[in-house]
Amino acid sequence: MNDIFPNEFLWGGALSACQAEGAYDKEEKTLTIPDVMRFNPTDNRKVTKQPNITWEVIKEAKGDKDTIMYPKRRGINFYETYKDDIALFAEIGFKVFRYSISWARVFPNGNDEKPNEKALEFYDNIIDECLKHQIEPLITISHFDMPIVLIEKYGGWYNRKLIELYKKYCEVLFERYKGKVRYWVTFNEINMSIKAGAKTLGIINEGQSNFEEMLFQGLHHQFVAASSVTEIAHRIDPKNKIGSMVAYFTTYPHTCKPEDTLKAQQDDQMKNDFYLHVMVKGNYPYYALTYFKDNNINLSMTDEDFKIIKSNNADFIGSSYYNSMISSADDVNIELTNGNVHSVYKNPHLPANDWGWQIDPVGLRVTLNHIYNKYEIPIFILENSSGFHDVLNSDGTVDDPYRIDFLKQHIQQMGLAIKDGVNILGYTMWGPIDIISSSKSEMSKRYGFIYVDQDDYGNGSKKRYKKNSFYWYKDIIKTNGRTVFD
Protein backbone atom coordinates (compact mmCIF):
# COMPACT_ATOMS: atom_id res chain seq x y z
CA MET A 1 0.00 0.00 0.00
CA ASN A 2 3.06 2.29 0.15
CA ASP A 3 2.98 3.41 -3.48
CA ILE A 4 -0.71 3.28 -4.23
CA PHE A 5 -1.13 6.92 -5.34
CA PRO A 6 0.53 7.92 -8.64
CA ASN A 7 3.47 10.31 -8.38
CA GLU A 8 1.55 12.92 -10.39
CA PHE A 9 -1.57 12.67 -8.19
CA LEU A 10 -3.08 16.11 -7.59
CA TRP A 11 -3.85 16.71 -3.90
CA GLY A 12 -5.61 19.92 -2.94
CA GLY A 13 -8.81 21.67 -2.01
CA ALA A 14 -11.81 23.44 -3.52
CA LEU A 15 -13.79 26.65 -2.90
CA SER A 16 -16.47 28.59 -4.74
CA ALA A 17 -16.42 32.31 -5.40
CA CYS A 18 -19.95 32.84 -4.11
CA GLN A 19 -19.19 31.34 -0.68
CA ALA A 20 -15.70 32.75 -0.12
CA GLU A 21 -15.17 35.95 -2.07
CA GLY A 22 -17.45 38.54 -0.49
CA ALA A 23 -17.14 42.01 -2.10
CA TYR A 24 -20.55 41.36 -3.65
CA ASP A 25 -20.85 44.89 -5.06
CA LYS A 26 -17.20 45.72 -5.80
CA GLU A 27 -15.79 46.54 -9.25
CA GLU A 28 -19.24 46.61 -10.92
CA LYS A 29 -20.25 43.08 -9.93
CA THR A 30 -24.02 42.53 -9.99
CA LEU A 31 -26.10 40.27 -7.77
CA THR A 32 -26.30 36.50 -8.12
CA ILE A 33 -28.73 34.02 -6.56
CA PRO A 34 -26.41 33.35 -3.55
CA ASP A 35 -26.45 37.10 -2.84
CA VAL A 36 -30.23 37.00 -2.27
CA MET A 37 -30.23 33.88 -0.04
CA ARG A 38 -30.97 34.89 3.55
CA PHE A 39 -29.63 33.24 6.69
CA ASN A 40 -32.45 31.96 8.86
CA PRO A 41 -31.15 31.31 12.41
CA THR A 42 -34.39 29.55 13.43
CA ASP A 43 -34.19 27.07 10.56
CA ASN A 44 -33.47 23.73 12.24
CA ARG A 45 -35.02 21.54 9.58
CA LYS A 46 -34.18 17.86 9.61
CA VAL A 47 -34.54 17.49 5.86
CA THR A 48 -32.84 19.44 3.13
CA LYS A 49 -34.96 21.99 1.31
CA GLN A 50 -33.63 24.47 -1.18
CA PRO A 51 -34.48 28.10 -0.37
CA ASN A 52 -37.62 29.25 -2.14
CA ILE A 53 -36.30 31.92 -4.49
CA THR A 54 -39.21 33.94 -5.87
CA TRP A 55 -39.38 37.22 -7.76
CA GLU A 56 -40.55 38.84 -4.52
CA VAL A 57 -37.47 37.50 -2.70
CA ILE A 58 -35.22 38.87 -5.45
CA LYS A 59 -36.95 42.26 -5.44
CA GLU A 60 -36.65 42.57 -1.67
CA ALA A 61 -32.97 41.59 -1.69
CA LYS A 62 -32.10 44.03 -4.47
CA GLY A 63 -33.39 46.87 -2.29
CA ASP A 64 -31.41 45.76 0.76
CA LYS A 65 -27.67 46.41 1.21
CA ASP A 66 -27.44 44.15 4.28
CA THR A 67 -24.50 41.74 4.55
CA ILE A 68 -25.45 40.23 7.93
CA MET A 69 -28.59 38.36 6.94
CA TYR A 70 -27.23 37.84 3.42
CA PRO A 71 -23.97 36.15 4.49
CA LYS A 72 -22.67 35.16 1.05
CA ARG A 73 -22.33 38.86 0.25
CA ARG A 74 -19.45 39.02 2.74
CA GLY A 75 -18.15 35.42 2.47
CA ILE A 76 -14.81 35.20 4.24
CA ASN A 77 -13.45 38.22 2.34
CA PHE A 78 -11.31 36.02 0.09
CA TYR A 79 -11.48 38.94 -2.34
CA GLU A 80 -9.00 40.74 -0.07
CA THR A 81 -7.24 37.84 1.66
CA TYR A 82 -6.58 35.48 -1.27
CA LYS A 83 -2.78 35.95 -1.13
CA ASP A 84 -2.54 34.97 2.52
CA ASP A 85 -5.07 32.15 2.13
CA ILE A 86 -3.34 30.68 -0.92
CA ALA A 87 -0.03 30.90 0.97
CA LEU A 88 -1.61 28.73 3.68
CA PHE A 89 -2.72 26.24 1.01
CA ALA A 90 0.84 26.21 -0.28
CA GLU A 91 2.10 25.55 3.26
CA ILE A 92 -0.15 22.48 3.41
CA GLY A 93 1.43 21.41 0.14
CA PHE A 94 -1.47 21.75 -2.30
CA LYS A 95 -0.72 20.51 -5.80
CA VAL A 96 -4.04 21.86 -7.10
CA PHE A 97 -6.59 24.49 -6.04
CA ARG A 98 -10.08 24.43 -7.47
CA TYR A 99 -11.82 27.79 -7.56
CA SER A 100 -14.71 29.32 -9.49
CA ILE A 101 -15.07 32.53 -11.47
CA SER A 102 -18.11 34.74 -11.00
CA TRP A 103 -19.92 35.30 -14.30
CA ALA A 104 -21.57 38.37 -12.77
CA ARG A 105 -18.17 39.95 -12.17
CA VAL A 106 -16.86 39.30 -15.67
CA PHE A 107 -20.08 40.34 -17.47
CA PRO A 108 -21.98 42.45 -14.90
CA ASN A 109 -24.90 43.20 -17.25
CA GLY A 110 -25.03 39.75 -18.77
CA ASN A 111 -24.83 40.93 -22.36
CA ASP A 112 -21.94 43.43 -22.10
CA GLU A 113 -20.03 43.97 -25.32
CA LYS A 114 -16.71 43.60 -23.50
CA PRO A 115 -15.79 41.85 -20.24
CA ASN A 116 -15.06 43.75 -17.05
CA GLU A 117 -11.27 44.18 -17.10
CA LYS A 118 -11.10 44.83 -13.35
CA ALA A 119 -12.78 41.50 -12.65
CA LEU A 120 -10.42 39.66 -14.96
CA GLU A 121 -7.45 41.30 -13.26
CA PHE A 122 -8.72 39.94 -9.94
CA TYR A 123 -8.85 36.40 -11.32
CA ASP A 124 -5.46 36.96 -13.00
CA ASN A 125 -4.09 37.60 -9.53
CA ILE A 126 -5.61 34.45 -8.02
CA ILE A 127 -4.32 32.25 -10.82
CA ASP A 128 -0.88 33.86 -10.78
CA GLU A 129 -0.70 33.49 -7.02
CA CYS A 130 -1.40 29.77 -7.38
CA LEU A 131 1.25 29.39 -10.06
CA LYS A 132 3.76 31.29 -7.92
CA HIS A 133 3.35 28.56 -5.30
CA GLN A 134 3.48 25.74 -7.91
CA ILE A 135 -0.23 25.06 -7.38
CA GLU A 136 -2.21 23.92 -10.41
CA PRO A 137 -5.33 26.14 -10.82
CA LEU A 138 -8.50 24.22 -11.64
CA ILE A 139 -11.31 26.55 -12.65
CA THR A 140 -15.06 25.99 -12.38
CA ILE A 141 -16.76 28.28 -14.87
CA SER A 142 -20.24 28.22 -13.28
CA HIS A 143 -20.63 27.23 -9.63
CA PHE A 144 -24.16 27.73 -8.24
CA ASP A 145 -23.74 31.46 -8.90
CA MET A 146 -26.49 32.40 -11.37
CA PRO A 147 -26.44 36.13 -12.28
CA ILE A 148 -29.76 37.82 -11.52
CA VAL A 149 -29.50 39.95 -14.69
CA LEU A 150 -29.61 36.80 -16.83
CA ILE A 151 -32.81 35.76 -15.10
CA GLU A 152 -34.42 39.17 -15.45
CA LYS A 153 -33.44 39.69 -19.09
CA TYR A 154 -33.76 36.18 -20.47
CA GLY A 155 -35.50 33.90 -17.97
CA GLY A 156 -32.32 31.99 -17.18
CA TRP A 157 -31.23 28.83 -18.95
CA TYR A 158 -34.76 28.16 -20.18
CA ASN A 159 -33.84 30.64 -22.90
CA ARG A 160 -31.55 29.26 -25.62
CA LYS A 161 -29.90 32.70 -25.81
CA LEU A 162 -27.83 31.80 -22.75
CA ILE A 163 -25.86 29.26 -24.77
CA GLU A 164 -24.29 32.06 -26.83
CA LEU A 165 -23.72 34.29 -23.80
CA TYR A 166 -22.03 31.43 -21.95
CA LYS A 167 -19.85 30.63 -24.97
CA LYS A 168 -18.74 34.26 -25.11
CA TYR A 169 -17.94 34.22 -21.37
CA CYS A 170 -15.96 30.97 -21.67
CA GLU A 171 -14.03 32.07 -24.73
CA VAL A 172 -12.83 35.13 -22.81
CA LEU A 173 -11.56 32.86 -20.02
CA PHE A 174 -9.93 30.31 -22.33
CA GLU A 175 -8.08 33.03 -24.25
CA ARG A 176 -7.09 34.91 -21.10
CA TYR A 177 -5.70 31.91 -19.27
CA LYS A 178 -4.22 29.94 -22.14
CA GLY A 179 -1.11 28.20 -20.87
CA LYS A 180 -1.98 28.99 -17.24
CA VAL A 181 -5.08 26.87 -16.61
CA ARG A 182 -5.25 23.31 -17.92
CA TYR A 183 -8.21 21.90 -16.00
CA TRP A 184 -11.71 23.34 -16.36
CA VAL A 185 -15.18 22.34 -15.15
CA THR A 186 -18.13 23.69 -17.13
CA PHE A 187 -20.94 23.43 -14.54
CA ASN A 188 -20.71 22.52 -10.89
CA GLU A 189 -22.82 19.46 -10.00
CA ILE A 190 -24.91 19.75 -13.15
CA ASN A 191 -27.32 17.05 -11.92
CA MET A 192 -28.48 19.42 -9.18
CA SER A 193 -30.20 21.56 -11.83
CA ILE A 194 -33.44 19.64 -11.34
CA LYS A 195 -33.29 19.99 -7.54
CA ALA A 196 -32.08 23.60 -7.29
CA GLY A 197 -33.42 25.30 -10.39
CA ALA A 198 -32.96 28.88 -9.23
CA LYS A 199 -29.27 28.85 -8.36
CA THR A 200 -28.23 26.43 -11.12
CA LEU A 201 -30.51 27.35 -14.03
CA GLY A 202 -32.01 30.69 -13.04
CA ILE A 203 -35.50 29.29 -13.55
CA ILE A 204 -37.93 30.66 -10.95
CA ASN A 205 -40.76 28.45 -9.72
CA GLU A 206 -43.98 30.45 -9.86
CA GLY A 207 -46.21 27.42 -9.82
CA GLN A 208 -45.97 26.76 -13.57
CA SER A 209 -47.72 23.53 -14.59
CA ASN A 210 -44.74 22.68 -16.81
CA PHE A 211 -42.03 23.65 -14.30
CA GLU A 212 -40.25 20.27 -14.50
CA GLU A 213 -40.26 20.53 -18.28
CA MET A 214 -38.74 24.01 -18.00
CA LEU A 215 -35.95 22.63 -15.82
CA PHE A 216 -35.10 19.86 -18.26
CA GLN A 217 -35.20 22.35 -21.12
CA GLY A 218 -32.73 24.57 -19.27
CA LEU A 219 -30.60 21.52 -18.55
CA HIS A 220 -30.58 20.61 -22.24
CA HIS A 221 -29.32 24.09 -23.06
CA GLN A 222 -26.54 23.59 -20.50
CA PHE A 223 -25.59 20.28 -22.13
CA VAL A 224 -25.31 22.03 -25.50
CA ALA A 225 -23.34 24.87 -23.92
CA ALA A 226 -20.94 22.50 -22.14
CA SER A 227 -20.22 20.61 -25.36
CA SER A 228 -19.89 23.83 -27.35
CA VAL A 229 -17.30 25.32 -25.02
CA THR A 230 -15.41 22.02 -24.87
CA GLU A 231 -14.82 22.44 -28.60
CA ILE A 232 -13.77 26.08 -28.08
CA ALA A 233 -11.38 25.15 -25.28
CA HIS A 234 -9.68 22.43 -27.32
CA ARG A 235 -9.40 24.74 -30.31
CA ILE A 236 -7.82 27.56 -28.29
CA ASP A 237 -5.43 25.24 -26.47
CA PRO A 238 -5.26 21.49 -27.20
CA LYS A 239 -3.75 20.99 -23.75
CA ASN A 240 -7.01 22.07 -22.07
CA LYS A 241 -8.86 19.32 -20.19
CA ILE A 242 -12.60 19.94 -19.80
CA GLY A 243 -14.56 18.08 -17.16
CA SER A 244 -18.18 17.33 -16.57
CA MET A 245 -19.27 17.26 -12.93
CA VAL A 246 -22.01 15.57 -10.95
CA ALA A 247 -22.82 15.20 -7.28
CA TYR A 248 -22.86 11.42 -7.20
CA PHE A 249 -25.22 9.68 -4.80
CA THR A 250 -24.37 5.99 -4.78
CA THR A 251 -27.71 4.27 -4.39
CA TYR A 252 -28.40 1.10 -2.42
CA PRO A 253 -31.68 -0.86 -2.41
CA HIS A 254 -33.37 -0.64 0.99
CA THR A 255 -33.83 -4.41 1.09
CA CYS A 256 -32.93 -7.34 -1.16
CA LYS A 257 -36.46 -7.34 -2.60
CA PRO A 258 -36.27 -7.18 -6.41
CA GLU A 259 -38.64 -4.20 -6.36
CA ASP A 260 -36.20 -2.22 -4.20
CA THR A 261 -33.30 -3.15 -6.47
CA LEU A 262 -35.26 -1.96 -9.49
CA LYS A 263 -36.11 1.33 -7.76
CA ALA A 264 -32.44 1.83 -6.82
CA GLN A 265 -31.46 1.28 -10.46
CA GLN A 266 -34.05 3.78 -11.67
CA ASP A 267 -32.97 6.40 -9.11
CA ASP A 268 -29.32 5.92 -10.06
CA GLN A 269 -30.18 6.39 -13.73
CA MET A 270 -32.12 9.64 -13.44
CA LYS A 271 -30.25 11.20 -10.50
CA ASN A 272 -26.69 10.32 -11.50
CA ASP A 273 -25.94 8.46 -14.71
CA PHE A 274 -28.17 10.40 -17.10
CA TYR A 275 -26.00 13.50 -16.81
CA LEU A 276 -22.70 11.70 -17.25
CA HIS A 277 -24.06 9.67 -20.16
CA VAL A 278 -24.93 12.81 -22.11
CA MET A 279 -21.63 14.60 -21.43
CA VAL A 280 -19.35 11.57 -21.85
CA LYS A 281 -21.12 9.38 -24.39
CA GLY A 282 -22.74 12.23 -26.31
CA ASN A 283 -26.37 11.14 -26.52
CA TYR A 284 -29.52 10.88 -24.43
CA PRO A 285 -29.93 7.42 -22.85
CA TYR A 286 -33.08 5.43 -23.51
CA TYR A 287 -34.34 5.64 -19.91
CA ALA A 288 -34.27 9.47 -19.96
CA LEU A 289 -36.31 9.57 -23.16
CA THR A 290 -38.78 7.14 -21.58
CA TYR A 291 -38.97 9.33 -18.47
CA PHE A 292 -39.75 12.37 -20.62
CA LYS A 293 -42.46 10.47 -22.47
CA ASP A 294 -44.06 9.08 -19.31
CA ASN A 295 -44.10 12.50 -17.65
CA ASN A 296 -45.31 14.49 -20.66
CA ILE A 297 -42.04 16.42 -20.91
CA ASN A 298 -41.59 17.83 -24.40
CA LEU A 299 -38.24 19.46 -25.06
CA SER A 300 -37.08 21.62 -27.91
CA MET A 301 -33.97 19.79 -29.17
CA THR A 302 -32.49 20.19 -32.63
CA ASP A 303 -30.36 17.93 -34.82
CA GLU A 304 -27.58 20.51 -34.50
CA ASP A 305 -27.80 20.23 -30.69
CA PHE A 306 -27.17 16.51 -30.85
CA LYS A 307 -24.38 16.94 -33.37
CA ILE A 308 -22.64 19.31 -30.95
CA ILE A 309 -23.21 17.03 -27.94
CA LYS A 310 -21.98 13.98 -29.84
CA SER A 311 -18.82 15.63 -31.15
CA ASN A 312 -17.48 17.27 -27.98
CA ASN A 313 -17.30 14.93 -25.01
CA ALA A 314 -15.79 15.62 -21.60
CA ASP A 315 -12.11 14.76 -21.06
CA PHE A 316 -12.63 13.70 -17.46
CA ILE A 317 -15.44 13.13 -14.99
CA GLY A 318 -15.57 15.42 -11.98
CA SER A 319 -17.55 14.24 -9.01
CA SER A 320 -18.42 15.44 -5.56
CA TYR A 321 -19.10 12.78 -2.97
CA TYR A 322 -20.69 13.57 0.37
CA ASN A 323 -23.21 10.86 1.11
CA SER A 324 -24.91 7.82 -0.37
CA MET A 325 -28.64 7.15 -0.46
CA ILE A 326 -31.08 4.24 -0.37
CA SER A 327 -34.11 3.54 -2.53
CA SER A 328 -37.27 1.62 -1.82
CA ALA A 329 -40.39 0.74 -3.78
CA ASP A 330 -42.33 1.26 -0.53
CA ASP A 331 -40.98 4.24 1.39
CA VAL A 332 -43.82 4.68 3.86
CA ASN A 333 -41.82 3.79 6.97
CA ILE A 334 -38.41 5.16 5.97
CA GLU A 335 -37.12 8.31 7.64
CA LEU A 336 -35.75 11.23 5.65
CA THR A 337 -32.51 12.90 6.64
CA ASN A 338 -30.35 15.75 5.36
CA GLY A 339 -27.99 15.33 2.43
CA ASN A 340 -26.10 17.33 -0.18
CA VAL A 341 -28.63 19.63 -1.94
CA HIS A 342 -31.54 17.25 -1.33
CA SER A 343 -32.78 14.89 1.38
CA VAL A 344 -32.14 11.16 1.33
CA TYR A 345 -33.64 8.20 3.14
CA LYS A 346 -31.77 7.29 6.30
CA ASN A 347 -29.54 4.24 6.11
CA PRO A 348 -29.60 2.55 9.56
CA HIS A 349 -26.11 1.14 9.01
CA LEU A 350 -24.40 4.54 8.73
CA PRO A 351 -23.42 7.27 11.23
CA ALA A 352 -24.12 10.92 10.47
CA ASN A 353 -22.74 14.38 11.22
CA ASP A 354 -24.60 16.97 13.31
CA TRP A 355 -26.66 18.03 10.29
CA GLY A 356 -27.82 14.50 9.51
CA TRP A 357 -25.53 13.96 6.50
CA GLN A 358 -24.71 10.25 6.56
CA ILE A 359 -21.08 9.15 6.49
CA ASP A 360 -20.27 6.33 4.06
CA PRO A 361 -16.57 6.00 3.16
CA VAL A 362 -16.97 2.61 1.46
CA GLY A 363 -19.61 4.22 -0.74
CA LEU A 364 -16.85 6.35 -2.28
CA ARG A 365 -15.04 3.23 -3.47
CA VAL A 366 -18.33 1.83 -4.78
CA THR A 367 -18.99 5.12 -6.60
CA LEU A 368 -15.57 5.32 -8.21
CA ASN A 369 -15.69 1.75 -9.45
CA HIS A 370 -19.23 2.22 -10.75
CA ILE A 371 -18.36 5.38 -12.69
CA TYR A 372 -15.10 4.07 -14.13
CA ASN A 373 -16.69 0.77 -15.14
CA LYS A 374 -19.34 2.61 -17.16
CA TYR A 375 -17.31 5.42 -18.73
CA GLU A 376 -13.61 4.46 -18.61
CA ILE A 377 -12.25 8.01 -18.58
CA PRO A 378 -10.25 9.63 -15.74
CA ILE A 379 -12.08 10.77 -12.62
CA PHE A 380 -11.31 13.85 -10.53
CA ILE A 381 -12.77 13.91 -7.01
CA LEU A 382 -13.66 17.58 -6.83
CA GLU A 383 -15.45 17.71 -3.49
CA ASN A 384 -15.43 15.46 -0.44
CA SER A 385 -15.74 16.41 3.21
CA SER A 386 -18.25 16.89 5.99
CA GLY A 387 -19.41 19.84 8.04
CA PHE A 388 -18.65 19.90 11.76
CA HIS A 389 -18.94 22.26 14.72
CA ASP A 390 -15.44 23.46 15.65
CA VAL A 391 -14.26 25.22 18.82
CA LEU A 392 -11.40 27.71 18.75
CA ASN A 393 -9.31 27.16 21.89
CA SER A 394 -7.86 30.07 23.86
CA ASP A 395 -4.37 29.25 22.55
CA GLY A 396 -5.52 29.55 18.92
CA THR A 397 -5.73 25.81 18.24
CA VAL A 398 -8.64 23.71 17.03
CA ASP A 399 -8.84 20.03 17.92
CA ASP A 400 -10.73 18.28 15.11
CA PRO A 401 -10.08 14.51 15.26
CA TYR A 402 -13.55 13.93 13.76
CA ARG A 403 -12.49 15.69 10.55
CA ILE A 404 -9.25 13.74 10.36
CA ASP A 405 -11.14 10.49 10.89
CA PHE A 406 -13.71 11.33 8.19
CA LEU A 407 -11.11 12.30 5.59
CA LYS A 408 -8.76 9.44 6.47
CA GLN A 409 -11.49 6.87 5.90
CA HIS A 410 -12.51 8.39 2.58
CA ILE A 411 -8.95 8.78 1.31
CA GLN A 412 -8.28 5.15 2.25
CA GLN A 413 -11.26 4.06 0.15
CA MET A 414 -10.07 6.28 -2.71
CA GLY A 415 -6.71 4.55 -2.49
CA LEU A 416 -8.36 1.14 -2.58
CA ALA A 417 -10.31 2.23 -5.68
CA ILE A 418 -7.01 3.15 -7.35
CA LYS A 419 -5.73 -0.30 -6.36
CA ASP A 420 -8.87 -1.73 -7.98
CA GLY A 421 -7.69 -0.09 -11.21
CA VAL A 422 -9.71 3.15 -11.24
CA ASN A 423 -7.91 6.06 -12.92
CA ILE A 424 -8.17 9.01 -10.51
CA LEU A 425 -6.46 12.29 -11.40
CA GLY A 426 -6.70 14.03 -8.06
CA TYR A 427 -8.60 14.93 -4.92
CA THR A 428 -9.74 18.43 -3.94
CA MET A 429 -11.42 18.22 -0.56
CA TRP A 430 -14.24 20.69 -0.09
CA GLY A 431 -13.69 23.86 1.87
CA PRO A 432 -10.02 23.76 2.99
CA ILE A 433 -10.73 27.06 4.73
CA ASP A 434 -14.04 27.71 6.50
CA ILE A 435 -16.62 29.40 4.26
CA ILE A 436 -20.32 30.25 4.19
CA SER A 437 -22.50 27.13 3.84
CA SER A 438 -24.14 26.76 0.42
CA SER A 439 -27.46 25.41 1.63
CA LYS A 440 -28.16 27.26 4.89
CA SER A 441 -25.85 30.29 4.53
CA GLU A 442 -24.36 29.66 7.96
CA MET A 443 -20.75 29.90 9.12
CA SER A 444 -21.00 27.44 12.00
CA LYS A 445 -21.02 24.46 9.63
CA ARG A 446 -17.28 24.23 9.10
CA TYR A 447 -15.30 22.12 6.64
CA GLY A 448 -11.82 23.61 6.66
CA PHE A 449 -8.30 22.83 7.78
CA ILE A 450 -8.13 26.55 8.48
CA TYR A 451 -10.46 28.15 11.03
CA VAL A 452 -11.87 31.59 10.19
CA ASP A 453 -12.82 33.61 13.27
CA GLN A 454 -16.26 34.67 12.08
CA ASP A 455 -19.67 33.64 13.36
CA ASP A 456 -23.01 33.27 11.58
CA TYR A 457 -23.60 37.04 11.80
CA GLY A 458 -20.18 38.13 10.57
CA ASN A 459 -18.80 38.91 14.04
CA GLY A 460 -15.18 38.08 14.82
CA SER A 461 -11.62 39.06 14.00
CA LYS A 462 -11.67 37.18 10.63
CA LYS A 463 -8.22 35.92 11.59
CA ARG A 464 -7.12 32.52 10.25
CA TYR A 465 -6.01 29.67 12.55
CA LYS A 466 -4.55 26.29 11.64
CA LYS A 467 -6.56 23.33 12.90
CA ASN A 468 -4.90 20.04 13.81
CA SER A 469 -6.19 18.62 10.53
CA PHE A 470 -4.04 21.23 8.72
CA TYR A 471 -0.89 19.38 9.80
CA TRP A 472 -2.44 15.96 9.19
CA TYR A 473 -3.34 16.77 5.56
CA LYS A 474 0.08 18.34 5.07
CA ASP A 475 1.62 15.00 6.01
CA ILE A 476 -0.76 13.12 3.69
CA ILE A 477 0.35 15.24 0.75
CA LYS A 478 4.04 15.14 1.72
CA THR A 479 3.98 11.32 1.75
CA ASN A 480 1.69 11.11 -1.33
CA GLY A 481 -0.96 9.35 0.74
CA ARG A 482 1.24 6.65 2.22
CA THR A 483 0.56 7.60 5.85
CA VAL A 484 -3.21 7.33 5.41
CA PHE A 485 -2.83 3.55 5.71
CA ASP A 486 -0.68 3.68 8.86
Automatic annotation (TrEMBL):
Recorded superkingdom: Bacteria
Any one annotated GO CC term: cytosol
Family the UniProt entry places it in: Belongs to the glycosyl hydrolase 1 family.
Annotated source species: Alkalibaculum sporogenes
Coiled-coil residues: none
Protein's UniProt keywords contain Hydrolase: yes
A molecular function (GO) term: beta-glucosidase activity
GO biological process: carbohydrate catabolic process
Family matches, as InterPro entries: GH, Glyco_hydro_1
Record Pfam families: Glyco_hydro_1 (PF00232)
Keywords (A to Z) from UniProt: Glycosidase, Hydrolase
SUPFAM superfamilies hit by this protein: (Trans)glycosidases
Protein name stated in the entry: Family 1 glycosylhydrolase
